[in-house]
Specification:
The complex is a heterodimer.
Chain A: H1 3-17, H2 27-54, H3 74-81, H4 84-115, H5 121-133, H6 140-149, H7 156-181, H8 184-192, H9 197-226, H10 229-234, H11 243-250, H12 258-278, H13 280-291
Chain B: H1 2-11, H2 23-59, E1 61-63, E2 69-72, H3 76-82, H4 87-117, H5 123-135, H6 138-148, H7 155-162, H8 178-206, H9 210-218, H10 223-251, H11 255-260, H12 272-280, H13 284-309, H14 311-315
Antiparallel strand pairs in B: 1-2
Helix pairs in contact in B: 2-13, 3-13, 4-8, 4-10, 5-8, 8-10, 10-13, 12-13
The chains are: A mainly alpha, B mainly alpha.
Chain lengths: 293, 316
């Protein structure tokens, strides 16, 4: 029996175990549902306040009223005239660049490490695991000195490289687990039928590993999208900074323009939350492949 | 055991060939792995290896405030760092920071995962809500909390005021007072760590065959007993992985503290990461020394994790 069929059986077992909701919900379900909704509300509460504040008129900013009397979109229209959209574009470049680089580099490595025993395989996976622990924060001065030396300050490519470099390990790790869980017999069967190794990889393995690939992709994208510390360190010119750094510089103002700040935050936050919600189930299965084999 | 057979069949990936192959083929064979994993090693080397080297080197250099290297400095950067009056308290605070955030996060996540693993109407929507702090930038979450805790108009203060927990609204400045600011930073750090941990544990829940619980019920085991003897042991890999990633994330966390307090008042909310960043503005060499210490701490955590996680059996 292969891992895949075992998994399929487990899924069937789970499906059998689940019963349809009874006509009248039990007290237990009611309490569970109510508390789950309360928890959910707590988790999105700050972001609701973020949206509300971005719609508050200037005059109502300093008041203690929970909800403003009027709503205004002026913070959003001011956003268009401010340079923040340019900063958002830089964020898009960095996140997209890092994601592409990670996929191009991590996929072959993960596939090979999952399929073959080669000399140095354990060492390679150990290096990957160690890299996964490493974060730019613990070697920030080194990063700064490196790009200072090679002229990478205030550039998009330096941030792409840093983000790709530090997020690749997680992608390799999760993809190795994913590729490893796909029975090689499937690939061999395709090859018996005359497909080349690469063809089998493309037509059989990659589609099966798609949830893992998507997970790795989204993880990298969001990490690079949200990255702050390295960008804060490597960029000094306002029109070279990604959105996180640009938003942070608002905080230094004598009087903080909260509604503008939050209008930009809302625009930067909603895409990633939606992106994440779209793949919620795959993230779970992707994580399963990474942590529990 | 189907699982172990699958793993074993991987072990025999390349059947050893006794026949001597031409040298070109043998060289090609040795180099094939490099073709596949080489780019990733190159990227790690450039983006991670180089900064590590550069950090260690800089920690022994005397660097001017304009970034010019003025020569070697021996161990003077470290001596200066250790003699900073607040050094010991910053190390102590970093430990409290990591331990409290990680432990509380894991415990709450176990409960949340238990809850969201059950079926109830609207589970998908509530799970989406759970994702928000994970998807959103930590920096922006921290800024919202700073806003919600601000004097006079901060929503948390206002609600606390209505509940009678907060006295005068104009004086309520939880982040401005050393005794309350650090606990609030810990709360925000837990808040942003919960989604990932909960999801990792939820994934663990999904991998537990339901039949085990039926068997336990047949044997007359109570729900607690089943949780303790089935769920927790089988969740162990998920918990270990989540905890590892959390420790690193929390230890290296910078945006929460930076956005909310800048490590102030005084240095009362600064961890080693924040302190390193503050030092970077005045003395790169000393900052590099702090960086080296941070790196060492991360290395110790990593080694401990590698030892307990049994990662080798996982990849073999």
């Amino acid at each position: 029996m292969t891992t895949a069929t075992l998994k399929a059986q487990q899924t069937r077992g789970v499906a059998q175990r689940r019963k349809r909701y009874p006509e009248r919900p039990t007290w237990k379900t009611v309490v569970l549902t109510a508390s789950a909704y309360i928890v959910a509300l707590i988790f999105i509460f700050p972001y609701i306040d973020m949206v509300i504040t971005s719609l508050r008129p200037q005059a109502e900013l300093g008041t203690s009223a929970v909800l403003p009397k009027h709503f205004t979109f002026s913070a959003y229209s001011q956003l268009l005239s401010s340079g923040l959209l340019h900063n958002l574009l830089i964020t898009v470049y960095i996140a997209a660049g890092a994601t592409i680089l990670v996929l191009v580099v991590a996929m072959p490595a993960a596939y090979y490490a999952a399929r073959y025993k080669f000399r140095g395989r354990i060492l390679f996976l150990l290096i990957v695991l160690i890299t996964q622990m490493m974060q730019p924060a613990s070697m920030l001065v080194g990063i700064y000195r490196q790009y200072f030396t090679i002229g990478g300050l205030d550039t998009v490519w330096s941030l792409i490289l840093v983000n790709a470099g530090f997020n690749m390990a997680f992608a390799v790790w999760i993809l190795t687990a994913y590729f490893g869980s796909i029975p090689r017999e499937l690939e061999e069967a395709a090859m018996v039928e005359g497909t080349s190794r690469l063809g089998a990889l493309r037509r059989v393995t990659l589609p099966l590993a798609a949830p893992g690939v998507v997970t790795a992709l989204i993880f990298t994208f969001i990490a690079a999208w949200n990255e702050f510390l390295v960008a804060l360190t490597l960029t000094t010119t306002p029109d070279k900074q990604p959105l996180t750094v640009a938003i942070n510089s608002f905080l230094g103002a004598y009087s903080i323009p909260w509604q503008n700040l939050f209008a930009a935050s809302v625009i930067a936050t909603i895409p990633v939350i939606v992106l994440f919600a779209l793949i919620e189930r795959k993230v779970v299965s992707g994580l399963t492949a990474g942590s529990i084999k | 055991m189907s699982h172990s057979t699958a793993v074993q069949s991987l072990g025999h990936a390349a059947p050893p060939s006794r026949r001597r192959r031409p040298i070109v083929l043998r060289v090609a064979r040795t180099l094939t792995p490099l073709l596949w994993i080489g780019p990733s090693i190159a990227l790690i080397g450039f983006a991670v290896g180089w900064p590590v080297y550069s950090m260690f080197r800089t920690s022994f250099l005397k660097v001017s405030s304009f970034g010019l290297v003025e020569g070697g400095n021996g161990g003077a950067n470290f001596t200066k760092l250790f003699n900073e009056p607040q050094f010991a308290s910053i190390i102590e605070r970093s430990v409290i920071w990591v331990v409290s955030v990680v432990v509380i996060t894991t415990v709450i996540s176990l409960g949340l995962a238990q809850m969201f693993h059950k079926r109830f109407p609207g589970r998908r929507i509530t799970r989406w809500a759970l994702i928000a702090p994970w998807a959103a930038s930590v920096l922006m979450t921290a800024i919202v909390f700073k806003w919600m805790l601000s004097p006079t108009s901060g929503l948390i203060n206002v609600v606390g005021h209505h509940l009678g927990l907060v006295g005068s609204l104009d004086r309520a400045d939880p982040l401005g007072v050393a005794s309350t600011s650090f606990p609030w930073l810990i709360i925000v750090a837990i808040f942003v760590s919960l989604p990932f941990t909960t999801y990792a544990i939820l994934a663990g829940h999904n991998s537990i065959p339901g039949g085990l619980y039926e068997a336990a019920a047949v044997d007359g085991a109570s729900k607690w007993r089943a949780y303790w003897s089935i769920t927790l042991p089988l969740l162990r890999p998920a918990i270990v992985v989540a905890t590892l990633i959390n420790i690193m994330n929390v230890f290296n966390n910078f945006p929460i503290i930076w956005a909310m307090t800048h490590g102030q008042p005084g240095y009362s909310t600064a961890t080693t990461t924040v302190f390193m960043y503050i030092l970077k503005g005045s003395d790169i060499g000393e900052s590099a020394a702090m960086s080296v210490i941070n790196f060492g701490i991360v290395a110790i955590f990593t080694a401990v994790f590698l030892k307990v996680s049994g990662w080798k059996t996982e990849v073999e």
